[in-house]
Amino acid sequence: MPLPAHIVAGQGQFLIDGSFGIGLEGYTEPRLVLARQRFLDRLSRETGIFFQGEAQASPASFTIKTGGASNPVQQLGEDESYRLDISTTHVQLTAANPLGVLRGLQTFLQLVKITPQGFGVPVAAIDDQPRFPWRGLMLDAGRHFMPVPVIERNLDGMEAVKLNVFHWHLSDNQGFRVESRQFPLLHEKGSGGLYYTQKQVGEVIQYARERGIRVVPEFDMPCHTTSWFIGYPQLASGAGPYQLETRWGVFDPAMDPTRESTYQFLDKFLGEMTALFPDAYFHIGGDECNEKEWDANPQIKAFMTAHGLQNDAALQSYFTARVQKLVAGHHKIMEGWDEVLQPDTPHDVVIQSWRGPSALAEAARKGNRAMLSAGYYIDLNQSAAEHYLADPLAGDGASLTVEQKARVLGGEATMWSEFVTPENVDSRIWPRTAAIAERLWSPQETRDVRSMYSRLAIISRQLEYYGLEHQSFTGLMLRRMSGEDDPEPLKVLATVVQPPEGYTRGGLKEYHTFTPLNRLVDAVPPESETARKFNDLAKLIAAGKASPEQWQEARNWLALWRDNDARLQPSLEKSEITAELAPLSRSLSQVAAMGLQALDDLQNHRVADATALQKNLQLLEAAKKPQAVLLDMVSPSVQLLVQATAAQ
Amino acid sequence: MPLPAHIVAGQGQFLIDGSFGIGLEGYTEPRLVLARQRFLDRLSRETGIFFQGEAQASPASFTIKTGGASNPVQQLGEDESYRLDISTTHVQLTAANPLGVLRGLQTFLQLVKITPQGFGVPVAAIDDQPRFPWRGLMLDAGRHFMPVPVIERNLDGMEAVKLNVFHWHLSDNQGFRVESRQFPLLHEKGSGGLYYTQKQVGEVIQYARERGIRVVPEFDMPCHTTSWFIGYPQLASGAGPYQLETRWGVFDPAMDPTRESTYQFLDKFLGEMTALFPDAYFHIGGDECNEKEWDANPQIKAFMTAHGLQNDAALQSYFTARVQKLVAGHHKIMEGWDEVLQPDTPHDVVIQSWRGPSALAEAARKGNRAMLSAGYYIDLNQSAAEHYLADPLAGDGASLTVEQKARVLGGEATMWSEFVTPENVDSRIWPRTAAIAERLWSPQETRDVRSMYSRLAIISRQLEYYGLEHQSFTGLMLRRMSGEDDPEPLKVLATVVQPPEGYTRGGLKEYHTFTPLNRLVDAVPPESETARKFNDLAKLIAAGKASPEQWQEARNWLALWRDNDARLQPSLEKSEITAELAPLSRSLSQVAAMGLQALDDLQNHRVADATALQKNLQLLEAAKKPQAVLLDMVSPSVQLLVQATAAQ
Hints:
Chain A is an alpha/beta fold. Chain A is built from 25 helices and 18 strands. In chain A, β2, α1 (30-47) and β3 form a beta-alpha-beta unit. At the A-B interface, α1, β6, α16 and α17 of A face α1, β6, α16 and α17 of B.
């Protein structure tokens, strides 16, 4: 995963043992030698077999043939194709440059599996290249700081699924996260002590380059900028003084686009940051201005009148155009969110579309290049399937001309960090981002959701080997909140609940930047695998297509959930954190009992009377509402079963 | 854990919330500031609550009062005592120097637990200091190289249980693991590319110092030195050429103690290494010379005759005395294994006793300082209880005079690495080393095994929070060997088997340095907790003291194990690694069935006839033998039950 563009499967398998070694042919560079070592380390993790760094046997059992160098700074659209020929005795990986080699090595790693003969890879010939050249993950380090090890392990995850852009959201109202030597009060006053040194930034960029990943920084402006104004209030449109924002939402502070001093500051700042980040693209944000500070400032109003700027959108457009010139002056191509696209936006500005496929298509029609992020908001707790089926060239995009379509560069998963910490962020990114990575790499017609989920389970396991903590974090957090070594009934509850989708969470409870994210909602993955599988069963049963084994499986699940409450309740009150789960656990038990009753009714072709049915459906509606900021994901399936009893 | 020397428990608890902060009073230094940050990071891990680096409230809820500095290079016997006063509103940690502060912070971290009111620490006054000044962990990086992250996470574990010496076994027949600038062929030819750079060594020493841990290097000589001779054959007593050893055992190669050039080399080498490692002690090994090369070399024989050296022991003694002078010349105190103790060994040489308490007592009587490692060989898969009850001042040690007892410095757990890799080494060290740490820190009369096991379970969980992988590795390895996401029946088998104790493993199968350690024996902890708990049940039942619930629990376990084979067998053959487990799984099922029968017989006061009894006991003897290099740990308990049926 992502599924390669072309696979021809063969007979037999290539076996991996201690004699396995890799020879480098053709062009070579230190990055390839490092990649080989990293590959062998991972293969060791996958097999428990030790390998020598250099091929021992001659000829080596695995040969890498590299055509030539890639660019010193990785460019958008560089060739990432590769060919992988696996026979029973030899593997040949061929690529035009090191980028293709990196991609091909990951494909091989994903094919390794244990067999009766040992660890092996099936014989195959694979010809592969990406569908889109810009396949990214955005990580918001502004709202919750993410230490370098978190970034690095996620870069490892990105490499595994062939993503090639790490978009680093580095400043927001709640924090400014990079050391600035030109304007040290930015990080000194704007970060609460949590920022990346320039040395660390350099290390992350190097780490990413070794994995074939570009690093695009984002400094969001003119809004989302409270953290700048603590040290430099003169940039702001309001009177100040400013304090670091500790709430979540859209806030008033905005840069003053009317003063020349603002642009002088930004020019110097951009000079420093464009030198620190070598990538050709530079993201200036530009989203979500609420414009209240502008409207309240008479000088700004006067400037607008004087310059014929009819409204706040025009004022932002003026600001964006000025900043674009500064960015271009530092030899970078500007990127921004949907809002930066205005009638006179230069064509080389790249648009990141958070508003949706229509906004994306509009940008492409106007002649700008653009990428999709709407549909890939992995902070919103949607299912992998929903993300998977969002296609940059679906909907409005399908009607673009060939030339316009070529302006659609790809997409980016966006990990906004209101509700994640270094502890659980991996679980919001993985494994769902692997589904997005497949959407962006594999041919458009690769859309089988069932196949996606089965392969997602495999890559998810593999990512744990690579150091990601998206699976292991749940166990640690459940132990912590319960104070028990093996809180088995709590685990049962945890497998069938999910955080609510979208932006509802913020409305259910008050959160600020220092609210502990240590509750059950923080400890479960965004998508319950158990509930998804049970839902498949419920659909089969409701449709009269389930086998006796499937009926029995459904009964077993429901009985487990019905009986779990009695086991769980006594321990819940022992912890301030789990006490709030009592109603949710009780409700799950009731819902499961109702599900068992529905199964009985279905099996005996009994039709419940209308009053009882209505009552049950009402109870189910109530059970589907969030409790303790969590959704019981069994209810929708039980609802299916109850409805089926009425339909018999 | 280790249990403090004095605790006075109070009423109520100190609650931890986001306002928690730490103030430093009295003496301060960067190490204390770092320790505070690390403490807050861990407290965050333990609670999921965010804390600010500096105390927000004034006065801070937690005050650290440090009397003064500790030595620039940590010395043996420095004051590590501290006092911890926990009230409902405030915590006061007082210590003479930063070492005591480090120890006290760990005590506090271990007291945090979730309660109905939130995370809290019980009110108490704790006065604590160590029983022994030398409390170590030896890690053998010679046989299997251990990368720096492995070392670092184990230093974290050491800090958590108040160990204060990291003994780094850096060279052996199978590898020389430190960069030498004086003699680069040592690491270039003797390590297979796996060695620590001097920069890394410095970083490890710094990392250890921050945690109050001394680093004592060991370069084993004159034997265990094959890896030296590949680059420098002129040091050897044999003709060479030499190759890196890939087998396990005791081998012939030995340095030539008769040539002056050997001492010139060693003097220069020791000059380099004593400068790299700042600790006052320097370990030269000296163990297990088989002397074959000496006996086969006529020049060496002639030298012995000329110098009146009657036998090989005298020759080694001559060598040791020469090396001791070189070590002393570089201002270090020499340390060595038992063998270096000879009649004329200088009194300042420290003896590490692997032969046992008598050898330790002998050294102390002779006037040398010494420490115990016999009993703490954590590579031998003994139980935590066995290690826990081994006391440096028990047995022969008990009869020492007060003055002689003062020469017993403490002890060291020794992690020899024939059968561990970076992947499972944590599981051989932890949690059992915490029991050894308690032996060396807590008062001698702290010996309750049941209490030790209950506290060991808690610290074990805590160590996982700190990044150790001694619990999580099993899940990953079982998934890998089975190729299944959740190999439930394999897990059931894994919980009741253990690697064989002592040195038997090497006799059961041929192993060399590159043998993959990826089988079930490598994936299970050295001590089965489930089997230990079942054994407690079996003893109660056999003694007629079990409650009805305990009877039922035993039945449930046995039924699970009896039925597990049918669930497990079909999947075993799918993997080359698990195929060998078929007989073991079958045998467990038979043993469990026999156990259930014994329970029935006991409950119904039925006495089995003598022939059937004999047959069963024979089957159990067979089941107790290793299969697939693993012991079924249920058999001994079932044996108890079967024997009990005969005794009714």
